[in-house]
Amino acid sequence: MTIKIGDRLPEGTLSEFVETETEGCSLGPNTFQVADLAKGKKIAIFGLPGAYTPTCSAQHVPGYVKLADELKAKGVDEIWCISVNDAFVMGAWGRDQKATGIVRMMADGNAAYSKALGLDADFSKFGMGTRSQRYSLLVDDGVVKQLNVEQGGAFDVSNAETLLKQVA
């Protein structure tokens, strides 16, 4: 079943490559409970099929990096990119995209969280296995306030510009 507006984010974990060691977070991949991260925060989340893929690298991530200050000015506490890749790849991609410290590059290595959202997709015909659909969510204290899911190979509604217009 696909998540919808008004639903609470499902339980689950995501991993993030941490660039700077802090108390409680070691350098390298760290795993986080989504519910703990979302508690009390307004989060712009976007999911995409894969790191280093054309639309994801040329448009999706750069759009959120570019509009991060405007999203934060409207009350968004964090921006997350979720992709079915490992934390090492997501960390490297984040550095390449100049997203470090702007967008949290969250790894869903086995697509477990994408499946929990009901937003997984079969990309086997492209040799990529199970991936994430392309989407964006606005979440407030763990509850979905906006949901934009792309149809087919489109990139029309999950972009940063659309979500920025939807932030109340």
TrEMBL record:
Record key words, sorted: Antioxidant, Oxidoreductase, Peroxidase, Redox-active center
PROSITE patterns, per the entry: THIOREDOXIN_2
EC numbers, comma separated: 1.11.1.27
GO BP annotations listed: cell redox homeostasis; cellular response to oxidative stress; hydrogen peroxide catabolic process
Residue stretches making up the Thioredoxin domain: 3-168
InterPro entries in alphabetical order: PRX5-like, Redoxin, Thioredoxin-like_sf, Thioredoxin_domain
GO CC aspect terms: cytoplasm
A Pfam short name: Redoxin
Catalytic residues in the record: 56
Catalyses which reaction(s): a hydroperoxide + 2 glutathione = an alcohol + glutathione disulfide + H2O
One GO MF term attached to the UniProt entry: thioredoxin peroxidase activity
Top-level lineage group: Bacteria
Similarity comment text for this entry: Belongs to the peroxiredoxin family. Prx5 subfamily.
PANTHER family associated with the record: PEROXIREDOXIN, PEROXIREDOXIN-5, MITOCHONDRIAL
Function description: Thiol-specific peroxidase that catalyzes the reduction of hydrogen peroxide and organic hydroperoxides to water and alcohols, respectively. Plays a role in cell protection against oxidative stress by detoxifying peroxides.
Name this polypeptide is given: Glutathione-dependent peroxiredoxin
Organism in which the protein naturally occurs: Massilia violaceinigra
